[in-house]
Write a structure and sequence with these properties.
Layout lengths: L15 E5 L11 E6 L7 E5 L4 E6 L14 E6 L7
Amino acid sequence: MTVNIDENGEAEDTSTFEYTSPEAVDAEGDNISIEILGISAMPPVSVKKGKDTFTLKVNRGLMTSDFAGDHTITVVLGDDVARDSS
């Protein structure tokens, strides 16, 4: 996603970007954990986690030149069962 900032340091597009993940499914039926990394320093970004999905929202209207650059958001999926690796 790209946010264009005007000469006043404000976003040109003030709409909200929203992404809802597909449902995560564990083949063994174990509970799934979802962890989102990289958004704590970005107030315009919020995440709502469901049982097996998440929704990421970016309020473009709150983006300013302070957020210029590339930002990585990482999604970590896991389950509640440790596997024997032998």
